[in-house]
Amino acid sequence: MSTPATLRELINTDLRGAKFIAVSNREPYVHSRVDGEITCSRPAGGLTAAMDPIMRASGGVWIAHGSGSADAETADASGRIAVPPEKPSYTLRRILIDDKLHQEFYNGLANGGLWPLCHIAFTRPIFRPRDWESYKRVNQIFADAVLEEAGDGPEPAFVFIQDYHFALLPRMLKDRNPRLIVAQFWHIPWPNREAFRAFPWKEELLDGLLGNDLLGFHLRYHCTNFLETVDRNLECLVNPEQFNVVRNGGTTLVRPFPISIDYDAHQAIASSEVAEKETAWWREQLNLQNSGVGFLGVGIDRIDYTKGIPDRLLGLDLFLEQNPEYRSKVQFVQIGVPSRVGIGEYQALNAEIDETVEYVNKRWSTNGWSPIVFYRRSFNLNQLIGLHKLAHFCVVTSLHDGMNLVAKEYVASRLDNTGVLILSRFTGSARELHDALLVNPFAIGEIAEAIATAVRMSHAEQNHRMLNMRRSGAEHNIYDWATKILTTLFRFNRWTHEIDDDTEEEAESL
Ligand code: F6P
């Protein structure tokens, strides 16, 4: 199993002390001015939580959009600030972008176009030419910053790009500095080639991604979808056996790397007094002592239409209808972290969630008990772990999700090996957490049935399932994810772009 120390060692040996430059749209630490005071917060979402421990181990530079109202004043003139604030170990370089440009790039092309296109969650993607122009422009701005960080010297630099916001960046970088080692991880699904046909600028986008030496997805299935999409749309040589693409003399390896969490650090919090205090806080907040509630369920998500939040609430509603003996005995806490509120679909989803919560609560509430407690706000990791520890079951009902780290976090918090995970089949996590109760989130009957199974499950069965899931979680931590990406890259001879025997063997075993 990899650790921060083994990852650091790998970077210093194989990467020969190369500069380690990460790129993402979302920054890991946001400084905001609230009532005249500057506060620092960490955003919701798997990407920043997963990359922060890796960057701490690498000691490199993370280039990201500066989104906080106090970001500029807390960084130096070039946008650099040492983070984490409490114990700095790497540099965050903030890129400040004009609001309109960023809105067209982020709300427009990235989240109004690519996000629904890749998730196929029945929300129509919108492709506006001006958003595409802004997407290109922002990729260019980031390319300039990366090239500046990498410098012109002979020492190697490794650029690790995150996500669908930067599909054009790899080619822009390679065109201007072919010596860079460039890898990208696509944190969301890649759709089948038929769905991708709707994207208007296919060639440019795919060519951009093929600037990478290595392109990673969570699942093998997403890699295959990508290879088929390229084969259909570009002049190049696609090797489906070797999982690579050769275009204009350059080779891009395409590989699955299921992402994870910092499992040990998560467990350490779960076993600490801090978590105990948070658990006590939730117990009091939810008035669990006096309420007669025997089972607590939890759902924790960014408010996103891919997460299936209304479906889950209606699943709970059906459960209460079909299992009258559990009315007033089950309490469901839904945490929804506001996200992408500038986009119409997200505003509509917020209204739909409010209506659904109201509908279910009106239908079943009695004597001070309401089945759903909804918090539209974020909580920090300690608070979430405190809640995981209290929850008898956790519900993840994404309609489609690259991975879903909430599922892995719940499992990591369950130190006593109890608790039940209800998990959508359409998440990457479902490929690893086989002992969850797997459901089709589009079928609310299955969600209702899974809740009924969860509240009736014996301790022995909970133990058996949870132990298996915890074993799997412990085996694949976030450092393994990064280590696998780096070792795959190093086996590939980036100077000649030839593939060695090991790489071929590894591809054949996929
Ligand atoms: O799931 C895809 C993803 O980009 C994550 O990688 C990220 O944590 C999440 O969406 C949050 O998105 P945003 O940065 O738009 O808030």
User: Which CATH-level-2 architecture of the largest domain?
Assistant: 3-Layer(aba) Sandwich
> CATH class of the largest domain, anyone?
Alpha Beta
User: Could you give the distance between the termini?
Assistant: 20 Å
Biggest sheet overview? 10 strands, mixed
Please tally the β strands and state the result.
Answer: 20
CATH-defined fold name of the largest domain: Rossmann fold
Bound molecules: 6-O-phosphono-beta-D-fructofuranose
Q: Classify the beta-strand content into a percent band.
A: 15-25%
Task: Name the CATH homologous superfamily of the largest domain.
Answer: Glycogen Phosphorylase B
- Number of helices in the DSSP assignment: 20
Mean model confidence by pLDDT: 95
Determine the structural class based on helices, strands and strand pairing. Answer: alpha/beta
The helicity comes to 40-55%
Q: Radius of gyration in whole Å, from Cα?
A: 23 Å
| Inertia-based shape | globular
Which spans of ≥5 residues are poorly predicted at pLDDT below 50?
none
Count of individual domains: 2
Order of strands across the main sheet: 5-6-4-1-7-8-9-12-11-10
